[in-house]
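Give me the fold.
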Amino acid sequence: MIIEILSIILFLVFMALSGFHFYWILGGKWGTDKVIPTKSNEASALAIPKFATLIVALVLMSFGLLYLAKSGLIALQVPNWVNYGYWFIPSIFILRAIGEFNYVGFFKKIKHTKFAKADSKLFSPLCLGIGVIGILIQLLK
């Protein structure tokens, strides 16, 4: 029962994150000043093409569907090698939470930009939570 609940939580989180990315692809502006890492002078550290945003949206949606399938609430035929993904997905998010030591993660150097503040309050804790829940699902199975 706990695996199902945790899987549904991850499904909902991934669908929400995917939805934000689709919103930005369609021209939405809300939140865009806080979701892209910026240098200390608030100049964007990245230029993200819409195609990359689409890929991220689809990957996040796929992650959500995989966890919903893991819960048993949907029947989704996946190859056996996808089971490694249930370790890979949490690993990605834990590494994201740790960061790359400059702009992203708990150990970033640039801490006073809009992105950095949002990252410290929301993005990094969310990524750590996703990672921990994903690992718990694997350990409890």
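The mean pLDDT is 91.
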